[in-house]
Amino acid sequence: MRVYSQCTEDWKALNPPANTFTAAVVDFNLRDDYCEESLAGLQEMVAENFKKYVSPHLNEVNHLPKGMLQSGVVSGKPFDSYRFEPESVGGKTVLRLVVFSGVDALGGFGKLADTDISKFATSLSQADDWFLSGGSVHLRRHPQRHAQFQG
Question: pTM higher than 0.85 for the full model?
């Protein structure tokens, strides 16, 4: 999983919706000859499960105390939207899941500290590798890429 923030240069590459400031991204490598029909079925299943299990709770998730809204850390809805589709990334086609949020953690904290984060960080990402083993999903952390600032 990789986390992107609006106050960094790599944000615009996600084509984010208006009023979003943060995105969590998971890329799944696709075979060169992947079956588009199977992929469409997977996308449909994800959309149905989202509608059935997530949508009913969005009002609760997106309801925030007034103080949080006034802090500047949250400028939009905590959950704004998601996208689950094939995209070209680094010359490869991946199945990309992107979840967009109106939580502006870096920019909001920067506002509270009277600091413009984009003046010292060109990109920020948190990267983890997920892998399947014996039917279970495992997470492997890479400390050298954890909350990496590049500039």
Answer: no
